[in-house]
Amino acid sequence: MSPGGFRVLGPVEVDGPGGAARIPPGRQQVILGLLLVEANRVVSTASLVDALWDENPPDTARTQVQICVSRLRRTLDGAGMTAVIDTRPPGYQLRLNDDALDLADFVARTTEARVLVKEGRTAEAAVLLREAAALWRGPCLGGAPNRSLRTRALRLDEDRLTCVEDHLELELELGQHHQLVGEVTRLVHEHPLRERPRALLMLALHRSGRQADALEVYRAGRTLLIDELGLEPGERLRALEAAILAGETPVQRQAEPAPRPAEPVRAVRPRQLPADTADFVGDEEMLRGAESVLVGDAARSAVGVVVITGRPGVGKSTVAAHLAHRVAQEHFPDGQLYCDLHGTGQPSTVDDVLGRFLLALGIPGPVIPEGVDARLEMYRTLLADRRVLVVLDDAATEGQVLPLLPGSSTCAVVVTSRSRLTGLPGARQVELDVLDTAQSLRLLGLVVGEHRVTREPEAAEALARTVGGLPLALRIIAARLAARPHWTLASMVLRLASERHRLDELAHGELTIRASLALTHDGLDRRSRLLFGLLSLAEGPSVPGWVAGAVLDDDRPFPSDLLEPLVDVQVLDVVSVEPTGEFRYRYQDVLRLFAREKATQEIPADDRTAAVSRLLGGWLALAEEAHRGVYGGDYTVLHGTAPRWRPSCSLTNPLEWMDGELENLCAAIRQAAAAGLDELCWDLAVTSVTLFESRGYLDDWERTHADALAAVRAAGNTRGTAAILSSLGTLHINRGRLDDSRAALLPATELFESLGDTHGLALCHRDLALIARNTGDDTTALTLYDKSLAGYTEVGDVVGRAIVLTQRAFILAGNGSLDRARTDLAEAMAVHESVGYTGGAARTLNRIGQVQAMAGEHAAATTTMRRVLDMVREDRDVIGEGQLLRNLGQVSAAAGRYVEARAYLEEALAVRERILDHRAAATIRAELAVLPERETPSLVPAG
């Protein structure tokens, strides 16, 4: 499938050139889902009505369908999607290319596989079918709660199951019976009444020399069919049973050896470019020259670098984004990295940027090394054989840029800066000039309409001269004219000239922008002027719509309506669409500075302080809600007394929401610290650990907590200090720095004891126990776990208790107390399932598998761990995937299934090598080196 496209083989997803486009759940998702499964075919309005209302549609049903389609069109257009929803009697048609839809990709692969089977190319067909089945990310259309759509989804899910059966049968014919026993067993468990998987399992077991197990699979299936359906097994199963009883071996196809299936971990292709400008106007010759530098030719031996410079308002970032989009898809298919270096504010550090780039390239946080040199080595290694475009916006100095240059000539870099970065070797310097008259008139015509420019050509040229050809100033003025079609261009020239005289003490470039902004600002209504100033107080790179309600203390259900006047006059940009269908906004740097000036001049300090407090209280309220959504409640976290401001938006996917708001959450913590809001600061910091820990954002964890720790200590906030130190102790454990962890946890414990804070003590005792366990002191660990359990029980933190039970079970099982370990794990599993904490359930289930393995229950352990492997793959937990594959290899080896063990360990090695985890990879290589080649048939068989 193409880098940006539509996905229906799982939850409905839309991936645009600038990132994921969010389709609001409900009617819009239902309509889009139906249009996608019927892509390039006309879907009648009646069918859409039936899909939305199974029965008794309202009188306004057709109108509501039209509204939904209209909103979908705007969303897809805003996301830069090439798909088009056409009105075609008697309904609508979604036109898109086959490579833009995963369902089309599935059909193409399965069709090609059937051709390969007919040609006798069995191995290639098997690989294609396995890849086709792997396109599924869950039930088609997310399970499709709507009855009409569910029918189509279930049909497609059936096609997927048939595809799985097909590739398993081909792989069995190619002699892979040992490797497939576990996978087919799981399929039989998931579909016990389906006869084909049961036949495949019997065949795999029979060819592995396990005739008794194969016959038991038949007998269990026969009993189930009779009990459930009153039917005897079909002819295929009966024939297999007869052949096994007679000692016959069914014919196996002789074919070429099967190629190794594609590795489970694929190279991550980041798509981080900001959105392109639809009405871009620029120097085409300059763009072609810059493009040739980036693209290069076969003879190029160094990375291509283009540095775009120019004064404020000349459009450096706009040109960089446009240039990057021109070359990205065709010439840099392995991804595009983007970072705002904040050269005109608080410059980003090289260490920080490298950490973010490595995360974007698929390296999990715990694997990212500390220190610039180690990160730089990993960064350049990852890009060595890839074609990746790097965009570095607003660089301050060459020192910010040089370390971020890839070492490979297959990559290219675009840099923007207010300074000429002449110290970058081999870079093409592109100094942007203002627009000439023709370009200015073209831009003006695109915004206000060509007819108005044609009607007043002299005034249009005068307007272009008055703003000095600065694109930013021209867009702002043009937007004001577009909003007032009764104004003449000549009247705007007079207004702008008057404003410039009032500001004649300013430098020319600054004067032009200020004059344009002043006219626009003064023309806004009072509430919009107030919002323009207060909104600029938010420190994050972009703001969701609810922020407008927070700074104005307006609790309307659609606060983004407040922002539309600012968008209309182009002093605020729309950059993306939220999961709820709301928009996300951003100031350009020059506009933010002007807005903050106006806020300082026109809004009383107390009002500004109150607005910031509500804004940060909104982030805290949403972070709390996200934590509850992940953990099932206010578990394993401490909260303070800072006031909250409750936004009207809801979080459909809490962790995904937090991930998308990473920069804003970090900025809010930093802003709270700077504003002296210590109670809010520490609360938001520890609540955000829900994201930092699950996604491996260890740098952000450490940086935000350093800010928060300074704030609470300066304020003498004892509980806040203890909470931050306790959280830092957990961070250091994640980084393997046990001494640093102990140094943070011990003073935190003392502070919590002085406060009588039972919950805080439970958190500290849990982590101190984990340190003791990791250093081999099981006795101390068990004592501390008991203290932690008592504390969690007292405060009613059931998830905290379940986490401790899961950790303690490992020690109990290792000491031979298997029954106690199983009891602990059963309780923990029940808690996680009751509150819906899937991450905890996965960890507990993994521990159950480890205990089963310790008990010699290798078949049960394999089944359990395979289930956990599916869970961590679904969560894209690469580290967890590598660990589970290694565990499965160890269990298989312990059971004497050495061929299967080698396959698991080689897959685990591939995962570790892909993320450059050299230490773990070396450990797996050592295990592979001592693994016997032959099976040990006397040991417990796989199940």
General description of the model:
Among the domains are: 1-174, Winged helix-like DNA-binding domain superfamily/Winged helix DNA-binding domain (Arc Repressor Mutant, subunit A, Orthogonal Bundle); 284-431, Rossmann fold (3-Layer(aba) Sandwich), CATH 3.40.50.300; 437-522; 526-603, Winged helix-like DNA-binding domain superfamily/Winged helix DNA-binding domain (Arc Repressor Mutant, subunit A, Orthogonal Bundle), CATH 1.10.10.10; 856-943, no CATH class. By secondary structure, the protein is α/β, with parallel strands linked by helices. A 5-stranded parallel sheet has the order 8-9-10-7-11, with helices on both faces. It has a 3-stranded antiparallel sheet with strand order 1-2-3, covered by helices on one side. The protein has a 3-stranded antiparallel sheet with strand order 4-6-5. The chain contains 42 helices and 14 strands. α1 packs across α3, α19 runs parallel beside α21 (508-522) and α23 packs across α26. It starts with a strand and ends in a 14-residue tail after the last helix.
